[in-house]
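Two entries, shown back to back:
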Amino acid sequence: MPFTGINAILRRFFALNCLTLGASLACLAGEPATADERFDGLPLDLPVVDFLPKSLLKGDGYRLAERVSNDGFQNTYTVHSDYGVFTVTGTEELRVRLQEIKATEALQALEQSDEFKEAAKSAATGLEEAGKALVETPAETTKAAARGVGQWMRNVGSSFTSEDPHQDNALETAIGYDMVKRRYALEMGVDPYTSFEPFQDSLSRVAKAATAGSMVTSFAIDIGTSGSLLGTVVDATNLAKMKGLLMDNPPASLARINRQKLIDIGIAGYQADALLKNYNYTPTEITLLCEALLQMGDIQGREIFVAFATSAPDPEVANFMRHYAVTLALYMNRVETGDIVDISGAAWMLSDSKALVGAFPMDYVAWTPGLSKSLARASDRMDTLGARDKKLFLTGKFSSLARDALEKQGWKVTEYSKFTGGEPQL
């Protein structure tokens, strides 16, 4: 059975290119390529408590299974929730999903309030009347619906014609319903375009009541920020900027802003368009990814990362690439800058101090024949790149076999990297 999703992209990331069919099968199975070297067998079955604090193991509306499955790079968590049983790949993405569950619980509690029930009664009529007003008295209605005729027309026009599945319909854009949805979601640290249906269902009902039913409850529903989608943005100033950008702009506007941002940092127009039309990324994710590329500063090689990110074949891989862009930006801002380099079709970094650097948002990296060979190829590139050192940073950790083998090969390895100061903090 071929590898798919995040496992496939990570194996490509580490350039898993075996020379013969027999060697390929041995690599894919995680079997030793030589009799005298030990490797981890895949998949790994690991305790969830090794990766998360006890406070996250269960909460209102969910509990996590006691074991996780690891494919050699990322964990797959099983979540038992009030909304069914589902799996989430990657610790960072799990935190995002748990934040969405908390937000759903908060919205559903709001729906039980007398204010919501009263507003909901008039919401459907309000939406219908708003639609009529756009036809019968468009000049007066549009003054209230949006500021700036040209911008509003572009947004509404995109609602009719956009291929983007995240774009709201024209009526919702015109009367401000889409903006209300974005504001509620972002104030709770949730992507307004998440695929988590229970949240979207509750968000839609609350937003309609707020838009057409005159509900006045504050948008700022406090559920904490431990899993906030914006929690890894480079700094507090940038956090406020990104929150405002995402709140004020529908997908069509974000696409124009992101395209210009990519052009400004040297990405060719055709390459920018290809990335922006990969709808495995939500508008929020692609905006955070583009901002991370900008925050890398005055470097070379961003087109290598864009090409890699454009190839994301599904939302799971898109999530990983967004986290990877933010991780690299954090490293470059808080540890050391450098240029992005291509190693076997994947994006690595050559630091200003001439170290070959991998800084990856991975949970638990196992030692396999494929990883051994691909990192050996990375080492072989050091001379041509002019690198004098080689470093690996994980937001998670290495297996004991992987750590021992890497250190024997001369890699400097750091686990639980947060990049919060001059050196990574553990």
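entry 2 starts here
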Amino acid sequence: MKKAWWWVAGAAVVAVAAVSGLVQSRGGAGLWPFSEGAASVAPTRGASDAKAVAEAGVRTSTKAARAADSAASAPPLEFQAQEVVSPTWAPMPLTLTFSGALTAPATVTVRSKVGGTLQSLGVQEGSRIRVGQVIGRVDAAEAASRVAERAAMVESARATLAQAERTLAQNESLAAQRFIAPAAVDSSRSSMEAARAQLAAAQAALSATQLTLAEAAIVSPIAGIVARRHVLAGEKIAIEQQVVTVVDLRELELAGWVPVHEVARLSPGMAVTVRVEGVDDPVSGRLARIAPAAEPGSRAIGVTVVLPNPQERLRAGQYGMVRVKLGDSRPRLSLPDAAIQSSAGQHEVWTLEAGVLRRRSVILGRQDTASGRVEVLEGLPEGVQVLAARYDNLREGARALVVSDPVAKAGSGAAASPSAAASR
């Protein structure tokens, strides 16, 4: 305290000397901006100004001395050992995340191959069906009549062919006896070939009509679950009209987007973990495909993840969050993310250096959300002690120390906790 008052006295002497020199220079050199009649008043005002300046200097010096005494006499802030950390070197695996909706790639829309009245449809939404199962039938009365017509045309063509063959045989016999000209034989042979072609065409038309009759039965091409019915029994349907949609849930896909600067770290076949909404446990999958080019205007590349779903617990349309964990080949200087404070886009940490608090600006790198650590690229030397949590109202330059015994902090009357210091 004596030393502080010495500072006060010295500051007062310096202030008085400066004012006295100013008054003397103005009075002796004729610098007073007054007339001769007022010359006798100028020294009196100068003395008054000098006294006021001296008193202001004394007050300022007194406040500074009191602040210095308060800082010197304030108890140091005490931090527990677990409240202080040091930056460590360790690999930091990078985790890429992207999201999307689950889709079922094995989704089939069953259509009618014939037109007519839908006589029956024996499935509902949610019904499980097998491969080749008949799920409905179209009225085939018209198709059956066409089959009968085509069959009659085949018989007619067959009779025409038989008659042409007999005519050719007779003409060949007569030509051998030179009763008819050879041209008559050639004509008979051409008629027979035409009749044979007509028979083949009739048979082909009959086969096509019979196939149409068989397709009156609506058959599912895959095994799965009926997701939607598009028509009802009794409706008139046309050829290629949608009847039902069947979904196979045994394998699902999730399509998402990854920024172009991160997609180079991915490759098909990588293992991924997916968090699906409504499902407690994460689901394992693999990266199946990566798009060859970025989507125009988005600076993102599409990626597809395949999820095995043998128990069919997942459903198409659910939302999932994909995490891809990438290894790190080199150690990095890192801190717990709780030690980082952010303000106006700047990242800062509080350090304990030589028994006082210091605030340092740092530049961060990659972040490992699984371990809760952040890479520090610049601004923090190795081995320095860093506050592991965020405290409010800390003052740079305040005294601080680390205690290892929690009892010492409770029994010490001269020390202050960070929260108590913040309240002052």
